[in-house]
Amino acid sequence: MLEFDLFELTKATVTLLVGFTAVLASLGVILCSSPIYCALYLIGHMICLALLFLLYNAEFIAAVQIIVYAGAVMILFLFIIALLGGKKEVQEPSLERTLAVFFVATMLGELFLSATVGSTKPIEGGFDLETVAEVGGSAKAIGLELFTRHLVSFELASVLLLVAAIGIICLSKFSYVPARRRMK
Amino acid sequence: MGHQFVLLISACIFCIGAVGFLIRKNPLVMFMSVELMLNSVNFLLVGYSNFLKSMDGQIFALMIMTVAAAEVVVGLAIILTIFRTRHDMDVDHINTLKG
Q1: Residue B31 forms part of a structural domain
Q2: Which of A10, A182, B19, B83 gives a 20 to 30 Å CA spacing to A127?
Q3: pTM, to two decimals
Q4: Distance from CA of B99 to the nearest CA of A (A)
Q5: Residue B34 included in any domain
Q6: CA B59/CA A139 separation, integer angstroms
Q7: Between residues B81 and A37, the one the model is more confident about
Q8: Global ipTM
Q9: Which of B4, B23, B47 is closest, CB to CB, to A101?
Q10: How far is the C-alpha of B34 from the C-alpha of A158, rounded, in Å?
């Protein structure tokens, strides 16, 4: 007798649907000629990925994905598009482009092959769902790991953000002036 | 859904991003394709951290998000600087450094 678990079935269906929506939205990003539509498709793609993160029990990462990517990064993209004016891009087929598509299609085939063939024995860590629930949610579990075992990389990430901020200030303040204007 | 679904979806998104980076001419859209590739890797890491019952994948995804944010900010500033000096949004025309 086949036993149906309605919850698992619904979860699998939703995961499948959201995954395919994410792939379709990423296709929209590279196929639209106007950058503003690309940005909108990218926002849809990132929200789909946040849903997938939720479905794979990573609530904190899903929230960070929404706030950092779909919020901050995409707002930055939209500001730049508004500033530069989203001109439509004319796509003419050329040999290099066709070659690039063939190259990546081969890569995709190889990735599919390596994904479906063969299996290695996984090494499991100590954070199953019950342990995470005992600790008090995925945010707390991530914090515990991040501030004990991964402290150095955390500090390095903060230094990286500081360097990026200083770099931005340098780029926008002492930016390059065209040679013709400098000669005057 | 199992391992294979995560692997196939993230391989698809990564390759779509790679194609986008190679065939588009607008630097903004090229940056968006880079974001697609980084996002697909994030999905793979989060999925596998769920399967392997470990938090390391999620922490690595967090690091990737940090790097992506820094990269986008610097990249968009460079694009803005180039646009201010050239008024041109085609990467094929920015070839002064080409040998």
Answers
A1: yes
A2: A10
A3: 0.88
A4: 19
A5: yes
A6: 10
A7: A37
A8: 0.91
A9: B23
A10: 22
The answer to whether residue B96 is domain-embedded is: no
d(CA A166, CA A106): 41
With 80 as the cut, is the pLDDT of residue A130 above it?
no
Range of the domain at B10: 3-89
B80 pLDDT higher than 90: no
- Rounded to whole angstroms, the Cα distance separating B21 from B30 reads 5
Chain A nearest CA to B87, separation (Å): 9
Query: Does B29 map to a domain?
Result: yes
Q: Hey, CA dihedral for B66, A39, B74, B40, is it positive or negative?
A: positive
CB B32 within 8 A of CB B83: no
Q: Torsions phi, psi of A62, nearest 5?
A: -65, -45
Subunit contact B39:A157, Cβ cutoff 8 A:
no
Residues in chain A with CB shorter than 8 Å from the CB of B2 are none
Of A60, A64, A50, A52, the C-alpha closest to A127 is A60
A178 and B83 in contact (C-beta within 8 Å)? no
For residue B9, give the CATH number of its domain.
1.10.287.3510
Contact between A115 and A73 under an 8 Å Cβ cutoff? The reply is: no
The number of distinct structural domains making up chain B is 1
Listed by number, the residues of chain A in 97-126 with a beta carbon closer than 8 Å to a beta carbon of chain B are: 97, 100-101, 103-105, 107-108, 111-112, 115-116, 122-126
CB contact under 8 A, B22 and A128: no
